[in-house]
Amino acid sequence: MTSSCDMFVFGGTGDLALHKLLPALYHLHREGRLHPRMRILALARNTLDREGYLALAERRCRAQVARTDFTIETWRTFAERLDYFAMDVSQSADFGRLARHIGPAPDCGRVYYLATAPDLFEDIAAHLAIAGLATPQSRIVLEKPIGHSLDSARAINAAIGRVFDESQVFRIDHYLGKETVQNLMALRFANGLFEPIWRAGHIDHVQISVCETLGVENRGAYYDRSGAMRDMVQNHLLQLLCLVAMEAPVRFDAEAVRNEKVKILEALKPISGQDVRDKTVRGQYSAGKIGGHDVPAYYFEKNVDNDSDTETFVAVQAEIDNWRWAGVPFYLRTGKRLARKYSEIVIQFKPVPHRLFADGEANRLLIRLQPEERISLQLMAKSPGKGMNLEPVELDLNLATAFSQQRRWDAYERLLLDVIEGDSTLFMRRDEVEAAWRWVDPILEGWHEYYLSPRPYPAGSTGPEQAHALLELHGRAWHD
Annotated catalytic residue: which of 236, 354, 448, 474? Predict the structure, then answer.
């Protein structure tokens, strides 16, 4: 059981809180992971009373939690932890009301989870300090994106840093809570099989893809200001790249792991000027079909400008300028309204030095993050019968079946428990966020400087043709 603390969820009536955070906390409660004295206070502007909020929270939890996991008795005991407080986070006086409502800080400390728009982070931190709610025992959790550029990220980090010590700040990226992502570290650093070949001499290239069939849904206003580069590449994809490429940390703790990730971000070759034309592709989905249903073009989505040039697809050829990875391209790709939903990492090895058989293929390691979580290694084997006819076969680790007796944890369950326990290993440090923006900003500036408008691609396709040409130019192809 964890140590006791109280959790305050700003934006408590939003989708993140109701669809992810509360179901995750419900599961932790159900499994006895939360201290009996832990309380959860949701905060938002909606004028609800406690009973109204509990009814709303129960409906959403029922919809998100598996039927076999949701019981009235467990919900009743979980609901005893829950409370609701209506406030406007832009008003300093409301934080004074909050301080009077909750009383003196307990010895156990408090967790402030900011499930709000990033432009509210600075005000919330400052108002917590003014109201005397930011104590040395408290922690603050920030959802991505941290800013929309290097300058804005620095401003947010500086504002948070004036109130909270860096050890109290947890910048969350839910991809780092996925089981397969953590298994990537186990695969690399707990198995002597891969370490000698995990380098430029044996690896031809790496692909990291996060593909979605959904459009912008109800996030049109936010997404039209950010686009795929800020929404996905700057955080999720670069975090995955770091875990693939980082050196083994001297120990498995927060600072050692994050030190190695920062080194990778700082070693990324800048993409600027004319390189933006050659090594990046922007795309935007047009009308098409997904699952047999017609879907509109991006610029007809709700709360999106009709003349929007925001990208919904990005492909990038990145390179890491260090001893291990010199000359190995890392192809990053993400997009909305694509043919299939999946997230995966592909490690494509180089072919054998001497091709003895006519139909051999180079080995490939596939790390699938979603929809299923699995790791498979493609090897060449002789097919039955006369002659030496080779076919690729897979050594497959399906995590769902390998650990079938254990319930699969949602990423937010693991990350919330880490916050409660004060373990920041799977969270981003200030310099890590800023290093990522330092690499992304010149690409965004290059798109603007060279008027590189998004290339159209039909909804339900695999993205713009130019994204395929990015690999085909070098005799490679996306793992589709």
Answer: 236
